[in-house]
Amino acid sequence: MSFPHLLEPLDLGFTQLKNRVLMGSMHTGLEEEKGGFEKLAQFYKERAIGGVSLIVTGGISPNLRGRLAPNACQLSFPWQVGKHQIVTKAVHEAGGKICMQLLHAGRYGYHPFSQAPSKIKSPITPFTPSAMSARQVRGTIKDYATSAALSQKAGYDGVEVMGSEGYLINQFVSARTNVRDDEWGGSFENRIKFPLEIVRSIRKRVGDNFIIIFRLSMLDLVDNGSTWDEVVELAKLLEQAGVTIINTGIGWHEARVPTIATSVPRGGFAWVTERLKKEMNIPLVATNRINTPEIAEHIIESGQADMVSMARPFLADPDFVNKAEANTPELINTCIGCNQACLDHTFSLKRATCLVNPRACYETEINFIPTTNKKRIAVMGAGPAGMAFSVYAASRGHEVVLFEAKSEVGGQFNLARKIPGKEEFDETIRYFINQMKLHKVELRLNTRLDASVIRDEQFDEIVMSSGVVPRKIDLPGFDNPKVVDYQQVLNREVALGERVALIGAGGIGFDMAHYLCEPESTTLQPDKWLKQWGIDKEYAERGGLTSPQEASEHRDIYLLQRKTSKMGKGLGKTTGWIHRLVLKKHQVKMKTGVSYQKFDEQGLHISVGEQDEILAVDNVVLCAGQESNRTLQEEMQATGLPVHLIGGVDVAAELDAKRAIRQGAELAIKL
């Protein structure tokens, strides 16, 4: 067995877990959809079949005021039990165990009825909470216990009490958000009464043979957060109160430090779990950016934790554990931490899914059923769309030939993976290469598809996934060799000077600015990354924060956009702030409302409003979007065969791998 520690059973006394893998809590949006619990049951069932030992659901509120949003899910009444039984039955039939997460949003509630320890507004929600009265505090504790008892009736194996990420319990514990002067505030002993009473009340209602996980904020990453001694003291008291397992919580949602984005080093926070493990007698779970069995195995084997929690990796691949057990980790569809289809969807009140796995949360709707009408299909272009279609179509039984003019597959992913913090894109390319071998896709590199090949080889259908080309700008001086496009830079076809102007401030412009600012990726250097973001492993100050390391000397960079809207407005909802902050650290100069005039020996001539100016730059890099590469479309259509366009060749908006891969999947189902 290649991952013996990860796959070793864990004895909890009254029950045993078959391995050390916990599927962490994720809110999918199915919880609120009509018929969503049937879809949710299939979603969890596939992960249980895939080998996960213990699943934790998305957050379920113990009462009305604790909901994350007005229509969010709660479990407070017996009549609500039935829909949960659909889920627990499915998981148990698949051989898994499942806990329901109890989450009270507190001041993070996105509605006017939110409550918190004190009347202090969150910086990430528009609503100011009301301060809970002492009676409401006691009532909320009772609601937690009632909800846990109902979850037991619904067939759950336990509950996870969400005590981290800045939600209600965290708000009571921290002096940052708890300024009460009664028995529930003031001293640390008073502030931690709330979580301790919740756990005691739950344990009293559910008995001894029921799992209670407590998600403990071990590293707040906000000013005036908990000290390390306070974290340890609360953890020990939670153990005494009846907690079975302590799960690691990292950072409040309002923290200005990345905690789960792709730029966070793999296993980058396991050190804090290891630090607490030395103090505890119950199992501890490490979390955040654990996305491969190798990383997970190392964490368990080295004694950093007793279990690992992975959430998004099970969106990417429900069979993660089974593939590890079969010693085929190369077949795992690795989570790249992009957030684009999971957290960005969740925070936009959309159903979550996965950029690299469009079936995630669509298990009852997207399925690749074997075809009864086998076709020979020619695919032009081995970018994300072309690779995805080829794999999915071949898995259905079609004969697929994938043509790629270049010497390697990957398309725009080959450019993206060169950006600091986006090295994970390598994993998606590796996954599709292995899937193409598995499903016998014929891959022809260094080969252009043309009409003669179509005629000679008798294809039935043509799929164009030939991607995009950078958009050119026709202005005086823009034919100068010092004016280049982003692909030329990332492919290292040109050398840039020390002063650079970037035209276009979408995702490509931000990526290019980051690329030029950081010659070495700190994502691959965990200790350097921690210092860059001001995270103190010594935990000398509250919240585990210290002063961020200053950025080293770098190029003089201008990031320019025509629009007058906020710079980076179109970036991901949960990651855009990270990109903006990185460029701010590197002192990138940002200008909006820019009109471009010409480029000459003086530099780039622009105007902002009524003001003309010259940016004395050595180079201009065009990041102003792209155009569909439809050079051969007419030639393909002239063959008389059906021609399908997917990915960038279909719509050349801001690069969108999520749409490209999903289009590939949907077309594969139809053909």
TrEMBL record:
Cofactors required: FMN; [4Fe-4S] cluster
A Pfam entry, by short name: Pyr_redox_2
All copies of domain FAD/NAD(P)-binding, residue ranges: 376-652
Keywords recorded for this protein, A-Z: Flavoprotein, FMN, Iron, Iron-sulfur, Metal-binding, Oxidoreductase
GO molecular function: 2,4-dienoyl-CoA reductase (NADPH) activity; FMN binding; iron-sulfur cluster binding; metal ion binding
Entry annotated with the keyword Lipid biosynthesis: no
One BP annotation, GO: fatty acid beta-oxidation, unsaturated, even number, reductase/isomerase pathway
Metal-binding in keyword set: yes
Domain of life: Bacteria
NADH:flavin oxidoreductase/NADH oxidase N-terminal domain sequence ranges: 6-329
Alphabetized InterPro entries for the sequence: Aldolase_TIM, FAD/NAD-bd_sf, FAD/NAD-binding_dom, NADH:flavin_oxidoreductase, OxRdtase_FMN_N
Family designation: In the N-terminal section; belongs to the NADH:flavin oxidoreductase/NADH oxidase family.
This protein's name: NADH:flavin oxidoreductase/NADH oxidase
Lineage of the species this protein comes from: Bacteria, Pseudomonadati, Pseudomonadota, Gammaproteobacteria, Alteromonadales
